[in-house]
Design brief:
Among the domains are: 4-155, Beta Polymerase, domain 2, CATH 3.30.460.10; 173-312, Four Helix Bundle (Hemerythrin (Met), subunit A), CATH 1.20.120.330; 465-595, no CATH class; 761-855, 2-Layer Sandwich (Alpha-Beta Plaits). 55% of the residues lie in helices and 12% in strands. The longest helix is centred in the middle third of the chain and has 31 residues, at 280-310. The radius of gyration is 32 Å and the shape is globular.
């Protein structure tokens, strides 16, 4: 009898031998069955050492039960008890389970009687699914056969089918229904292994077996589909096996940390594709996306076919629609197998009918299969046919179903065939550190967001967007602009301009109104402009607003650009959008809208309007009409241009009686957005003040969104910071008290600046670093200032590092606009100083900044 230590050594050595037995991971699928056999052998040996009675069964369940044991997956076991079990046997069971952990196996176990198994399965479909997949490890085979028979007898295929579909729907929701994320979950995400397992569970419940070959022999799959599905399964399995080996743990997400390593393991290398270089990791992920796409294409066909078997089609009403289509129950189907060959336009008509017919819940499997096979019919002749052009535009004019229609068209390759340039971005990765989807998936997310604005059920989320899109004359122009907005990616150069040219040529050939033909390419070209201005420039400066209004030109384009911008930012990543960005965009929209509808606004009237509003707000707090004068006399026009009326009133209420304070004044409040703290700092100007403030916020776990730097005529710094406590859990009242006291103390102390804080960079930046870029140019609007632009990977200490360099070179900071896009920082500073008049000194300053950021 071997000891636990000897068995553990055998377990470890055998696993390592399996790992080295398959140097080419493309052919590693047999690992699953060999790991299962290894686990079987070890478990049976340990079980036999405890001399358990024959009516006590040890059963493998779940993934292990179906003989798909991944390197670091749990070993799921069921210990099936007889109705009565002596206490000594229970004690031996505890010892047995303890030894499993000592050996090094990750065990997931349940100890139940047969009656308890059936009871738990009736309550939880997950338990029922696990029990459905099993093989016997030890015990009486006759009793095991009775167990399997009982499990099947108590399973209702109809209820099981519906429960698993609901489970799939909930699982898809966790991944935003997106199969093409940049770091996909190879097991759980749409198009992952779980979708293939779902088919196996349902066919198992029906007694149809688990193999794709058996489904093919029953006519549920064609030979070609059978081949593609097996190939996709092999790719997914091999990727997951190698991912486990590489991570050395149970890891199902293809994280950036592993993509380069996996690409090398699978033999991918860097290659040139036109104007761009395709990374090895991108080639790997392209293969993964292709496999996921096949799964997304074929599993719905199988699910529909299995539904027909489970829910008898007898008595289903067939309702004719036209000579090409009919409704069989709630499924749209073609009237004859050769409909698409006879009338290729029916390809687009099929999708249009699913939008128009409320009673059509889906497309029948036979019709989906015919659509897939009819893709080659979409050629230049098809695209130039006026009827097809009209059908495609009509898709965007229907009030329901557009998002799911375009997803389905992309899924089955129709969208990329009809617009070949869109096919170019399908599955294309984008390593810009803020997009989490491939280009095509992001595009469909943006379009989904626009459609949500138009649905009454989501009016509460974005009231302004919902109102604007409800009043928009031709919303289909917005949807088409969303479809084209990133179509220029992957071609080298400015994707906005490239995409605009693609959209312009396409629109000229379509049955669109002239205004829409002009609007769509304009939106594509400028889809980044509004977000860049709102986050990089002072949107409360009339000149900024006037320049933007001149670019926009009219209210229709302003509304369209605002809607597309909000939808675009929200479609990049759940982390990128926040209430602060929403407020900046809404304020820029409001100011531009007022200017477009009232062309007589001047600098003077702009400032006067703000001051009148600030006075009105002060009067609401009981201030005398002249209480503000001493404080306002200490400020110049630049201050009033950079701050809105609410900020001016708040500053005045706080400082009107303390304009010559000897002690720093720090006040904070929750911003109107509800997510950001607005912090006011008033103190005698001192060296390194901006750096000192940045260091405080960085080390206290606050992210700085915006900073307005001003110096009064008396030489006081009057600075406003907008910060977000992303790493703190206190209530906002506690945060306000902390900031007001601690920051005032740090400013008063004027201690030597601490050494630079080198925080950990994110894993995304480790694998896809952003090379720092520095640019200093004169401010075109005010010759006294220069604009410093910084692009770098975001990391702790970034702002304070920049501030130290500026302070060391006697550079004054007038304002700072902080824009963080995921892991990428794009910050803009308005600076002044004598050094900036010397070109050589400016070059040296840029060099110093680059060196500091690279360190």
């Amino acid at each position: 009898m071997r000891s636990t230590a000897e068995i553990r050594q055998d377990w470890t050595a055998s696993r390592n031998a399996l790992k080295s037995r398959y140097p080419d991971p493309r052919y590693a699928s047999p690992v699953l069955h060999q790991l299962t056999a290894l686990s079987d052998r070890i478990l049976r040996e340990l079980w036999s050492q405890h001399d358990f009675p024959q009516d006590l069964l040890l059963v493998a369940v779940g993934g292990y039960g179906r003989c798909e044991h991944y390197p670091f997956s749990d070993t799921d076991l069921l210990i099936l008890l007889p109705d009565e079990l002596p206490p000594p046997v229970l004690e031996k069971l505890e010892a047995f389970i303890g030894r499993l952990w000592d050996v090094g196996m990750d065990i997931g176990h349940s100890v139940r009687t047969l009656a308890e198994c059936i009871d738990e399965a009736g309550k939880d479909v997950t338990v029922q699914t696990a029990l459905l997949e099993n093989h016997l490890l030890a015990g009486d085979p006759t009793r095991f056969a009775a167990f399997r028979d009982t499990v099947h007898r108590h399973l209702d295929p109809k209820e099981f089918f519906e429960a698993k579909l609901l489970e799939q729907q909930a699982r898809y929701g966790k991944f935003q229904n997106a199969p093409y994320k940049l770091e996909p979950n190879i097991k759980e995400a749409p198009g992952g292994l779980r979708d293939l397992q779902l088919i196996g569970w349902i066919t198992n419940s029906l007694g149809l077996g688990r193999s794709w070959r058996s489904l093919s022999s029953m006519g549920l799959l064609t030979q070609e589909e059978h081949r593609k599905l097996r190939q996709a399964e092999r790719v997914l399995r091999c990727c997951r096996i190698q991912l486990h080996w590489r991570a050395n743990r149970h890891e199902d997400r293809i994280l950036f940390d592993y993509q380069n390593q996996l690409a090398a393991d699978f033999g991918f290398s860097e290659s040139d594709q036109g104007p761009l270089t395709l990374r090895a990791s991108e080639a790997l992920m392209a293969e993964y996306y292709l496999a996921a796409r096949v799964v997304m294409q074929l599993t719905p066909l199988l699910l529909q076919a299995l539904r027909t078997r489970i829910f008898s089609p007898l008595g289903v009403t067939v309702s004719p629609i036209n000579e090409r289509f009919q409704l069989r129950g709630d499924l749209l189907e073609i009237t004859a197998p050769d409909v698409f060959e006879r009338e290729p336009s029916a390809i687009l008509e099929a999708f249009l009918l699913t939008e128009r017919l409320a009673e059509a819940s889906d497309i029948a499997p036979s019709t989906l299969r015919a659509l897939w096979n009819a893709r080659p019919l979409i050629d230049d002749t098809f695209r130039e046919d006026p009827k097809n052009r009209q059908l495609f535009i009509d898709l965007f004019r229907e009030p329901r179903g557009l998002t799911s229609t375009l997803r389905r068209m992309n899924q089955y390759g129709v969208l990329g065939r009809y617009i070949p340039e869109f096919g170019h971005i399908v599955g294309r990765m984008q390593h810009d550190l803020f997009h989490v989807y491939t280009v095509d998936e992001h595009t469909l997310m943006v379009l989904r967001n626009l459609r949500r604005f138009a649905r009454p059920a989501f009016t509460h989320e974005y009231p302004l967007c919902s109102r604007l899109i409800a009043e928009f004359p031709h919303p289909e122009a917005l949807y088409l602009a969303a479809l084209f907005h990133d179509i220029g990616k992957g071609r080298g150069g400015d994707h906005s301009r490239i995409g605009a040219e693609i959209a312009r040529k396409w629109c000229e050939e379509q049955p669109l109104p002239t205004k829409d033909r002009e609007l769509i390419p304009w939106l594509v070209e400028h889809h980044l402009t509004m977000s860049q201005i709102s986050q990089k420039e002072d949107i409360y400066d009339p000149e900024t607003v006037a320049r933007f209004a001149g670019l926009v030109g009219d209210q229709t384009r302003l509304c369209a650009l605002y809607l597309l911008t909000v939808a675009d930012i929200r479609g990049t990543s759940p982390k990128v959008w926040n209430a602060w960005k929403a407020k900046l965009l809404e304020d820029l929209f409001g100011a531009t809208s007022r200017l477009l509808t009232s062309q007589n606004i001047t600098h003077e009237s702009w400032v006067e309007e703000r001051l009148d509003e600030a006075k009105r707000l002060l009067q609401l707090y009981g201030f005398r009409p002249d209480a503000h004068e001493a404080f306002w006399n200490d400020l110049d026009t630049v201050y009033f241009l950079r701050h809105d009326a609410r900020e001016i009133a708040w500053h005045t209420r706080t400082l009107f009686s303390r304009i010559q304070s000897d002690h720093p004044i720090v006040r904070a409040r929750l911003s109107e957005s509800g997510e950001v703290l607005q912090v006011l700092i008033y103190a005698r100007d001192q060296p390194d003040l901006f750096a000192r403030i940045c260091i405080f916020f960085e080390r206290a776990g606050f992210s700085i969104f915006d900073a307005k730097i001003h110096t009064t005529r008396r030489g006081y710094a009057l600075d406003s910071f907008y910060v977000y406590a992303s790493q703190r859990s206190e209530s906002y009242r506690e945060l306000i008290s902390y900031v007001e006291y601690e920051l005032a103390q740090r400013i008063s102390a004027q201690a030597t600046l601490p050494p630079p804080h080198k925080g950990r960079i994110s894993r995304q930046l480790r694998h896809f670093p952003v090379a720092p870029h520095i640019a200093i140019r004169p401010d075109e609007r005010n010759g006294k200032f220069h604009v410093l632009s910084v692009v770098a990977g975001d990391r702790p200490g970034l702002l304070s590092t920049i501030a130290r360099v500026l302070s060391a070179n006697c550079i004054n900071l007038e304002s700072a606009k902080i824009m963080t896009l995921g892991e990428r920082a794009e910050d803009t500073f308005l600076i002044s100083g004598k050094l900036l008049d010397d070109e050589k000194a400016v070059v040296q300053l840029e060099t110093d900044l680059l060196q500091a950021l690279q360190e």
